[in-house]
Amino acid sequence: MIVLLWTDALLWVLVALVAGYFWLVHRREHLAAPWRRVAQSPAGMMALVVLGAYVLVGLADSLHFRPRLEPGGKGNGPAYSVEVLSVLDVALAPLRMRTETTYSEPLATRAYARETVDLGGGRVTREFPRLRFGGALLAREQDRGRDIAARVLRGIGVGVVIWLALAAALVGVFAARSTGGPGTLPRWHDRWRAVWGGQTRVAWRGFLAAGAALSVLVCVVASLAQGYHVLGTDKVGLDVLYLSLKSVRTGLMIGALTTLVMLPFAVLLGIMAGYFRGWVDDIIQYLYTTLNSIPGVLLIAAAVLMMQVQIDTHPDLFPTSAQRADLRLLFLCVILGLTNWTGLARLLRGETLKLRELEFIQAAQAFGVGHGRIITRHVLPNVMHLVIIALVMDFSGLVLAEAVLSYVGVGVDPSMISFGTMINAARLEIAREPLVWWVLAAAFVFMFVLVLAANLFADAVRDAFDPRVRVGGFTETAPA
Amino acid sequence: MIAYLLRRILYAIPILIGVNLLTFALFFVVNTPDDMARMQLGIKRVTTEAIELWKAERGYDKPLLFNAGAQGASRLTETIFFEKSVRLFVFDFGQADDKRDIAHEIRNRMWPSLAVALPVFLVGIAVNITFALLMAFFRASYIDFWGVVLCVAMMSISTLFYIISGQFFASKLWRLVPISGYDGGLDAARFVILPVLIGVVSGIGSGARWYRTVFLEEIGKDYVRTARAKGLAETTVLFRHVLKNGMIPILTGAVAQIPLLFLGSLLAESFFGIPGLGSYTIDAIGSQDFAVVRSMVFLGSVLYIIGLILTDISYTLVDPRVRFG
User: Fold this and answer.
1) How does pLDDT run across B69-84, given as a tens digit for each residue?
2) Of A296, A338, A331, which is closest to residue A480 (Cα–Cα)?
3) Which one of A309, A338, A452 would you mutate to disrupt binding with B, by most B Cβ within 10 Å of its Cβ?
């Protein structure tokens, strides 16, 4: 039975919107030009590859269903499990199922804590027990090092093969498109040299470099994961790699859905304030100054606390815990969106104030074009670059904010896997002796790579879209 | 000037009323006091009497907006809205759910917060300016390029990471400073130094990068070319002219944050056990003490508005071309 969670639905709507936007861009030269400049930036392309990998994981984790249970009862129709799974869960089923009893180090064969083991005949001993799955395929435990090396080599081999196939396909396609018209295809050698020398219009070299790193890494991890817990296990024995991959969706959701919520407010109110001026402007300015004047975390905390009361007093509204956690995530995004639109709205108001005095808009007004039409046809296209820049710049901050909010206790539902909840659960273990470091390390590294890629991509987009950068050379906007 | 200030202060009043109405709506209309009581006392197995008692003890047993049962003016004053929201305007914060006086707590906890936040603020600005000037001096070279890369990387690291790793290395591994806690007087320095250091380091990424842009924008201006044309050394140009003019946007931007320093930092204070307003707020959120959260929201917006006014004043002080209209 397919379960359509609210956040899933909205995410797919967002994907459709983005796809529609790029279809539109593809057909219009003046819209496509800045994106082409993004594609020219090696850092931007590398970031795009990494972001793409994260988005794939997130999207695979956004197709949910409830598996059908084995028919046991009579004639009541198919029964469905209360557990909500996603496509990613199925793909990672080995990781999800192979749970140990408690902590274990990355690639370990034995647990991290001593346990009492019954040797039979009334004798007991305390030792580090063998893991149920980590290194269980090994015939002798001493072979661990050799086995790991073999798996790594195999992973690298497969990764390189995949990458070579990708590179060959790319060079072929690129050459066909760059020369226009069949029959005049340049030789493979020349195409390859163009890509390698960074002479292509799209920065394929950066794309391939990031692709190489990514495919080798993924293959090595996949090859190791078949026999070990690559990133260890957490307190209740769950595989940390699985937890990290599941967290990706939460991070992406917070970034993406907040944007979706914030956008209509920011664009509509910002442009209206700048365009109509007078009392409309006064009201909108009052609105965003008031919202701005409450410290962000406090406003979010107040709203989330209130939502928590609602959820706790109406437990009957949610059939599964996944649905409850999902609704809480959605509300968190809505709240973040409602507190975040003010910055962009203020920017758009200022830009619209300038635009409405320009000749082409004055002319449109003189011809008697309606306000709505002027805004959609003349103002909106001319502020779109600001909107796009603000959207990509905000994303990374939101991913970081999720972890902090979860720590404060106003983040996602505690049952939902996210970077914040992972860090929160592991943070107290830092005081333990010996140290449990891998859960924190995994969460921080996964989060760091995502945020870094988002930041680099945002920089590339801003450089391509901001007209000041092209004219003046050195200009950047202040961080919000 | 005085007239302008007065107008700005008057303009702040409707904003504070707006904040107040918003929090009132959030805390009392979306959820009734009954919901709050049930939340505090446990969802299940709670009797009506217990709820009534909880509400009466905390003064939530009155009507929301209009008390039909009272006489005269007390029809309006004997309500939750008046007692809990309007009184905030005279900074009468009332009692927390654990019956302690909120205003007293705020007065006591303000200073530890400031002891951490103020050094972070001052040292942070100095460090960020130093790094930004360095990058601007070596602009368009490898030092500049890798400096920016480092800034972007540092921006991408979660604050939680800085705090947790700082605490782990400095306190647990090397035993340089106590892991958490606070003490009055000069002893406070031992406890404050690590949070301050972490606060500064975690701010370098975005701060230095932003200041670098500011300086580079100044370097592109005509007066800098003139200064170079008359033969000044690059360092003189940078320190005498660019630094001075670049300070205008930096300082006016920083002034807005000064009042908010009193609120302290939520994360650092709770991790390091500093009894400031930040940890007070976190505790209140954790124990769902709505009275405290409400007071902090109001206090925060008052401080924000003061910051806005200070920014406007500082513009005229540093840039004589700006006049109040």
Assistant:
1) 666 666 666 677 777 7
2) A296
3) A309
By C-alpha distance, which of A118, A139, A114, A138 is closest to A128?
A114
A25 vs chain B: nearest CA distance in angstroms?
A: 29
Q: Is B72 helix (H, G, I), strand (E, B) or coil?
A: coil
pLDDT in tens, A184-235: 556 667 777 777 777 777 778 888 888 889 999 999 888 888 888 888 888 8
> Is A448 in Cβ contact with B158 (below 8 Å)?
yes
- State residue A472's pLDDT score: 39
Location of structure tokens 């050459």: A175
A448 contacts in B (CB within 8 Å)? 156-158, 161
For tokens 């109405």, the residue is B21
Specify the pTM: 0.88
Taking alpha carbons only, the member of B314, B130, B141 closest to residue B215 is B130
Q: Which residues of B touch A408 (CB under 8 A)?
A: 266-267, 282, 285
Residue A473 and residue B220: Cβ atoms within 8 Å? yes
Angle, CA B157 vertex, CA B271 and CA A444 arms, to 5°: 75
Tokens coding A304: 């989330």
Ordered DSSP codes for B68-116: TTS-TTHHHHSSHIIIIIGGGGGT---B-TTS-BHHHHHHHHHHHHHHH
* H or E element, residue A36: helix A29-40
> Would residue B47 be called left, alpha or beta, if left means φ above 0 and alpha means ψ between -120 and 50 degrees?
beta
Q: Determine whether the interchain pair B164/A455 forms a contact, defined as Cβ–Cβ distance below 8 Å.
A: no
- As a residue count, chain B comes to 325
**Which amino acid belongs to residue B166?**
G
Question: What residue ranges in A93-180 does DSSP mark as E strands?
Answer: 115-120, 123-127
What pairs with residue A127 in β-bridges? Answer: A115
Measure the CA–CA gap between A175 and B162, rounded to whole angstroms.
47
Single-letter residue type at A146: R
Residue B51: what pLDDT?
77
Residue B231: helix, strand or coil by DSSP? coil
Best mutation target among A294, A446, A462 (most B Cβ atoms within 10 Å) is A294
Our measurement of the distance from residue A460's CA atom to the centroid of its chain's CA atoms, rounded to an integer in Å, reads 18
Q: CB under 8 Å to A261, separation ≥6 — which residues?
A: A333, A334, A336, A337, A338
Q: Tokens 């086995």 label which residue?
A: A147
- Interface contact A286, partner B, CB < 8 A: yes
3-class SS at A104?
strand
Angstrom distance (rounded) from CA A219 to CA A391: 33
**Residue where the block lists tokens 């507190």:** A339
* Contacts with B85 (C-beta within 8 Å, 6 or more apart), sequence order: B20, B21, B23, B24, B294
| Residue written as token pair 């994106």 | A35
Query: A159: closest CA among A218, A227, A231, A228?
Result: A218
Q: Is B221 helix (H, G, I), strand (E, B) or coil?
A: coil
Cβ distance of B31 and A309 shorter than 8 Å: yes
